[in-house]
Design a protein that fits this description.
157 residues; alpha/beta; 5 helices; 5-stranded mixed β-sheet
Length: 157
């Protein structure tokens, strides 16, 4: 058995795929309920005013933006704030797919800042959402494995 054939690798890949599907469902519902905040600056404002209403924070950057020092500083500050306030954080590895989900028909408008996306809790019933519960479990399990900001890959459609 080689390192690539370890059974845990298959479980981790399946777990991440399920979490990607759950994230897609959560984003779709949050978009229809208007419970999303897009952009680093807007997210920082909301986190400052009402952090108790935020249930999930997504950070997205592609490989080209990995060297952007200002963006990485923003990410570090947002991550620290979310950890302090018990807000689950996920890092999205493919921001292009995130843009497809959140901005399906933007037209000639410039694309929104999707480096940070907050999902808020508009109603208490959203806590009963199985997809959101699955994401919360994924985040909790990742923290148990000392992965404080798990990276998730949204499935291509």
């Amino acid at each position: 058995m080689t390192l690539e054939e370890l059974p845990g690798d298959h479980r981790a890949a399946g777990r991440m795929e399920q979490a990607g599907d759950a994230l897609e469902e959560v984003l779709s519902k949050a978009l229809s309920q208007r419970s999303l905040t897009l952009g680093v600056y807007e997210a920082a404002k909301l986190l400052n005013v009402d952090p108790d209403n935020v249930v999930l924070c997504l950070l997205a950057a592609d490989e080209d933006e990995a060297g952007d020092a200002a963006l990485q500083i923003h990410f570090t500050l947002i991550q620290a704030f979310c950890c302090e306030n018990d807000i689950n954080i996920l890092r999205v590895s493919n921001p292009a797919r995130l843009a497809q989900l959140l901005l399906p028909a933007t037209g000639p408008e410039p694309p929104a800042d999707l480096h940070c996306v907050l999902v808020t809790n508009p109603h208490a019933s959203q806590w009963k959402d199985p997809a959101l519960s699955q994401l919360m479990c994924f985040c909790r399990e990742s923290r148990y494995m000392d992965q404080w900001v798990p990276v998730i890959n949204l499935p291509e459609r």
